[in-house]
Amino acid sequence: MKHALLFSAMLFGTIGAAHADDPLSTWNNTSSKQAIEQWVQNATNKDRSTFIPPEKRYVVFDNDGTLWPEAPLTFQLQFAVDEVKRLAPEHPEWKNDPVVSAVLNDDLKTVVASGEKGLIQLLELTHSNITTEEFNQRVSNWVDSHRDNRFGCRYDQMSYQPMRQLLDYLRENGFKTWIVSGGGIDFMRVVAEKMYGIPPEQVIGSFSLSEFSLTDNGTQLRKTMKGAFNDDAAAKPVAIHLFMGQRPVAAFGNSDGDLAMMQYTASNPDYKTFGLLVHHTDAEREYAYDSHPPASGKLVEGLSLAKEKGWAIVDMKHDWKTVFDPALCK
């Protein structure tokens, strides 16, 4: 028995050491992983012409579908749906609205079919006319109390483990990681640091203007829908310039909505850049889609453009050993 325990300790110690030696241990050794490692080695080796100074190592990641799932609904839309249900008893007049009625009847097809107009309507009901502190608390409460219907995990436990390792790997090599997403900037900032190690000031997303006022207790910012900026497609490079002030050297996305950001990055005149698209091909461990996504994340043009530009395409089914961290999402 003693010898068996000793052997087990040696075995698991060896496995642990191997895991420590491979910062991308949840990636299979395919061309995607090799491309990432080769680019990082080239970018961080001072003796190579491809060296990128640490102060220029800004890399950008889309969020929905790139760092966490966007099917069957994006997490933020699911939050809005759940908030409408929670708040509806206080607003009986809402039930006369077709989009709200669809939410209350769990008719998600109608909700999705309502498009941007319907989404804005739900956001106005659940994201505006409250203070920024109250909104942050609502998101925190939702994260603490709700779980994904299919996987049974809390939403803040559902980041893609291989992408989380990639974020850590890049930071360990001197890169500054940013989120650039169509998701709401305030929504993502509540969870981004805990989930990804990305602080609030490095999160860029869709936003609207808040209103400042003095109160008896000090000051407050109140959320509105004024000046709404949808950080998607061609708006992403605009937001990168506004918030970052320099062109990234690598971009990671999963849909045609990320192409402008990736093209903007690839056009960096000073450095050899890197691009990667996550292709959802794993219906068993996550979802499989490209041209016909459940709600968002259409990927058609990107698949052909990636070949032309030399961007890596991650096949989730074959390139990733795991999708979600089994220690978190059981």
TrEMBL record:
Coiled coil: none annotated. This is Haloacid dehalogenase-like hydrolase. GO terms for molecular function: metal ion binding. The lineage of its organism: Bacteria, Pseudomonadati, Pseudomonadota, Gammaproteobacteria, Enterobacterales. CDD domains: HAD_like. Residues 1-20 form the signal peptide. It comes from the Bacteria. Keywords: Metal-binding, Signal. SUPFAM superfamilies: HAD-like.
